[in-house]
Amino acid sequence: MNLPRSSLVASLIAVASLSAFPVSSVRAADNLGGANTLAGGNPVPGLCLLSREAVFAQAKIGQAASQRLSQLAEQANSQLETQRKPLDADIQSFQQTSPSLSEAQRKQQGAALQQRMQAFQTQSGETNQRIQLTRAKAMQSISEEAQPIIASSYTSHHCGLLLNRDAVIAGNMANDLTGEVIQGLDRKITTLSFNLEPLPSGNGK
């Protein structure tokens, strides 16, 4: 069996790199760039704004969640790297000794390497799924903590409509609730502890 070393090693490297997409990586625009140069006019009565992205990225609980997600991703990457190195070494050894092997030996060893690589790829994919599930659950927890604060701010500002601030091109930002929500969330909770979520049952196991 022909196993080009370059393609095998490239595949291993690709599946061994996980991304946690941490909360802090979400772009949180404190300002609206060019929109600020156009800002002005009268505030629209009852219309309020909120940047959920800024809340996730700037509130202390969001930053804590981001750090924990990064930590979990780094741990997962380290574990996968530990498993990848001997497989990589065996692939290189196979490439070097392949010319001296019989056709039967090449097929047998090549098939075994393919099986190991597929198992590694499967494990990498499952670990990445667990990281994404963990991220989603962490963000859901933050949303649940923020919801009553958003509701209180919405009521106190006599809002009748709440829009995504990040979608605003220009205008009067007087009714932006983002900063107030962040401050309220910081007073309420600053940390969030969690571990990697398990895969849902029936996930092909």
Would you summarize the structure shown here?
The protein is mainly α. 61% of the residues lie in helices and 4% in strands. It has six helices and two strands; from the N terminus they run ααβαααβα.
Strand order of the largest sheet: 1-2
The average pLDDT value, as a whole number, equals 82
Rg computed from alpha carbons, rounded to a whole number of angstroms = 25 Å
State the secondary-structure class: mainly alpha
Tell me, briefly, the overall form.
Answer: elongated
Strand content: under 5%
Q: Kindly, what is the distance between the CA atoms of the first and last residues, rounded to a whole number of angstroms? A: 29 Å
Question: SSE order in H/E notation?
Answer: HHEHHHEH
Instruction: State the low-pLDDT regions, or none.
Output: 1-37
Largest sheet: 2 strands, parallel
Helix content range: 55-70%
Number of helices: 6
Number of strands: 2
Number of domains: 1
